[in-house]
Fold these 2 entries.
Entry 1:
Amino acid sequence: MITVTNKGRYWFMRKQKLLMLENEDEKDNTKKVYDFILIQKRGKISLTSHTEFSSTEKVVTGRFRLYEVSSEKSFKNGTHLELCIKAGEWNCYVLPEGLPDKNSLEKSFFVNKNCITEVPAA
């Protein structure tokens, strides 16, 4: 089963390796900022104390989608984070333990070539 759990806009500051996710839900329009360190095809994501980006920094921005996946043949179980880098192109990551939170400040992730967003609906 694949469930969309969140979607909205993201900003990525390349120099400091910060990722901000802004939920588009009107009831919960929150922003969360994470350290996002990718080395080859694996990485660590952790909550950070930053709340905003400096307007002078180079920033990549786009849409994001967050999915929960369980018992699907084509996809790994866990949380999938997909970042749109340009129209029709997505960078896809699997976070087996989900996004970091107050109880677990750092989690691991890996690059996934199979993006849920790119799979046509049946």
Note: Strands lie at 2-13, 18-23, 31-39, 42-47, 59-69, 78-86, 89-95, 106-111.
Entry 2:
Amino acid sequence: MLFVKQDVDVDEIVAGTRKWDDQYLGSMIHAVELYEDRRKVKQVIQEFLSGRNKRAFKLTNPSSKRIWLRELLIALYSNDTWRKESGAQMPKDNPISYPYIEGRLSLMAGLKEGRVVCALVTFIDESWACPDTAIEFDLTRAKQKVRNALTGLSFIATFEAAYYVNEKWKKNGKEGNVISFHCHAVVWATHYSQLARRRKRIKPRFRPILGSKTGVRFDALRKTDDVCRAVCYQAKMPARGYRTVVKPNGKKTQKPAKLSFWQRYQLFKALQQYDLLDFWLAGGEGKKIFGAARKKLAEHRRKHRERELRMLQPRFLNHRLHESRAF
């Protein structure tokens, strides 16, 4: 979809994420082939990784992620394209299926007009870390912790898992390489002072790990392009792990690192229980944007269910049986 006024091609943006998605998919399929029960390999790949099952929206499926990213970006830019005024209707020559935001300035328009400030906020907490030998994450409590931290602000957020190949972690008697679940949130308000005060207030609530001084990081997003890149970053698949490196001044930094196929498989098994949207949350004006995109996903899910039902019809099954015999 092309938004002419913003000179933005959402489909092109989404296509740009394909490189890493393909890298993730190829590695993950091979990991499943190596370590999954041989009797279940085909079924597992079909259910959790196959493009044919993308509208089931499993968290582990990169094809599902691209559909979600597209709908989320369209919702962001659609809010900016038209804002409802009293009695105003959308022009017929530019139909947009998303609801308007009434009475408030949208994120993208606000950034362009200098009336909204925005940041990518990263949350890390010691309680969200676990060893790869016993991967566990209390998602419900973690989401509530982020909601409490961002109460009164507008945001769209998601969680992801960072796999560190050279850092050990011990929890509940289990030890292994650390997996750090963390949250990236696109947060906006009307003044930087609001974000600065919030950062100061919530920093003590999040306990950092791996030598970091803080569990809360704010990175300013000054342009609409910055927001777009941040949303793509939020939606990325775990194609790579991380390695910590000590700098000459003694501080730690992190660099991308390759994951072994066994490490990929461990992470895959831990994440396959989740629906894609389980890891996402929103607040304030972000709820409207998130809700519009989620409504679109519901339409995709409905089509998926209809397809599944058609495949169970006797006529379809008989046709498939006939094809297999002919072959």
Note: Residues 2-326 form one domain.
